[in-house]
Design brief:
heterodimer, A: mainly alpha, ABC transporter involved in vitamin B12 uptake, BtuC, two-stranded antiparallel ribbon, 11 helices, globular, B: about 400 residues, alpha/beta, Rossmann fold, seven-stranded mixed sheet, six-stranded mixed sheet, about 20% strand, disordered N terminus
Chain lengths: ~300, ~400
Amino acid sequence: MDIFLQQIINGLVVGGIYALIALGYTMVYGILQLINFAHGEIVMIGAMVTISCINFLVGHNVNLSGPVLLTVSIAMAIPVTMLLGYLIERVAYRPLRKAPRMAPLITAIGLSIVLQQAATMIWGKNYVPFPAILPTDVLEIGGASITTLQVAIIILTAVILTGLFLLIERTKLGRAMRATAQSPDVARLMGVNVNTIISMTFMIGSALGAIAGVLVAANYDQAHAYMGFMVGLKAFTAAVLGGIGNLGGAVLGGILLGIIESIGSGYLGDLTGGFLGSQYKDIFAFLVLILVLIFRPSGLMGERVAERA
Amino acid sequence: MTIARYSLIAAAILAITACGKQEQPAPAASAPAAPPAAAAPDTIKIGHAAPLTGNIAHLGKDNENGVRMAVDEINAAGGAEIGGKKIKIEMVSEDDQADPKTATTVAQRFVDQKVAGVIGHLNSGTTIPASKIYSDAGIPQISPSATAVAYTAQGFKTTYRVMANDAQQGKALGEYAVSKLKLKKVAIVDDRTAYGQGLADEFEKAAKAAGAEIVKREFTTNQETDFNAILTSIKGAKPELIFYGGMDAQAAPLTKQAKKLGIKAKIMSADGAQTPEYIKLAGNDAEGTIASIPGLPKEQLPGGKEFLAKFKEKFNGEVQLYAPNCYDAVMVMVAAMKKAGSTEPAKYLPELAKIEYSGVTGNISFDDKGDIKNGAITLYQVKKGKWETLEVVGGAAAK
């Protein structure tokens, strides 16, 4: 039982991170019907910039406690990724907005490769260890272990998600985003500056991506120039699972996918008598993707709200 | 909306780009800009293949530096004297991405370029499929780091390696764990590559023979960073030792995550994880980890101190793992060419088989399979953030 509980906790932590990244995909899709495949790289760059900031601060003997140091560094990384998100949209997607759908999809993938290579030039090809600044206390809950960092990840994810929902549902910006998602042309007639809204969407998604990137790096204690690819694909799967374009769906999809993966890889070996081992962990994400695409292409949260931001 | 179709297209494009990525020329490949005069008979090409991108690029770079150091040294002396002529060497370095498919493409490229010999590949999983291509073309291949037993057991005449293999390594580790450390309940994880799997199997055999019980066998991949799921099921089996067959890029996060899950078992691994990078990534949690490397301790190598100093000066960094072996691999190859008086693979291959060479890693001579004779294994443990020598098994030091 404690093993099962542990797998659920593992899944929740990873799922929360997937959810944060999936939001970035789904918000952009909701408005532009575009899959921003460069989003995984934004996640990576968010993590890398944060680590560089922490190392810089520590190197200059700035005496702050770990969590404060981390917050300051994330606060520096977020504007960087927001700017990057803005530039990506401005340079790679806006000129192609009227082009066939395939064109921006291809530039997205091209961009993702460019960003990966740029990152290897800046941060090198080695793994970058996440500085050991956070407390590593382990809490025991019913036989399962969870670190304070993992608790923080779950709480932080919940707080950010609530904040985002309030932003979308309760503010003027959120209303403009929803309007743009429904119909850019009508929104424009109503006095919404559609280009600004699209830029804002990219920037918000990128900010979430940066936070997610830091959480991934902190949870696994390392970052790498290629880390964005797989985590981006998984988050994309989570977004499709929940119903792409749907915010609640992205969250549900992310958490479900995290738990499916965790339980799946934990028990796969035992269930198949060792025929399929836990190295097949990644098949769960993509099996889910295929099943969803075949049986419920609109995702779990259904068609009705699928077009909303 | 046709989200389904759209997403499938997206997946298809991804698949296509994934393939495309494999074929992009490695940055390092174009680096040693070959002068057009390279075809002149007084320059020969030696191929070097290792992952220069991806999560073990640091080890690939290390190997490349080892080869480069040897090549630069030879060229600085005006070339190697082969058959009464000074012959310069050009290193052609290619990125095999630690991927078996890419490795065969790289191998074919080397064959097409008519390289005189190949140093590589780094991983056993890439070395084995590539060796078939070199063997068919009659090109001698010396791997500086592929330790899987299967590599030289294929019956090819062109396969050599300059360090002990995993049968010796797994045995040394298994016996040490059970007989010396008295750890009887063992969990084994491997990354399902030819190296990781082969090593884990050899370890399992040795540990069982010494009386240990394998309480759990789990698997991962060489791309993974999340081991929480498998560690959780391992935790349930309450092992005293976790053995990992694979590279440092996985061994380090595995170590950290094990500690976070409250697992007290000792961590043991082999050459893939015995790197400064492992300590850098695992930080304090690396403390106590045991790992082995084929070969004598670096400081005890006959030319070790000098080599390490020169390496540091030239590349401004520490040796990660197999750079000294790469250096020796080039030197052994050239020594065979000198003896044969020819750079033709067919002519110097018989000389390579019976070479006696004293290099920075020790005396090198090969048995009839191409494995090194008398290879030593050294066991290390992380103490105060450094790999400290525990014990040397076999090789010259055993006398």
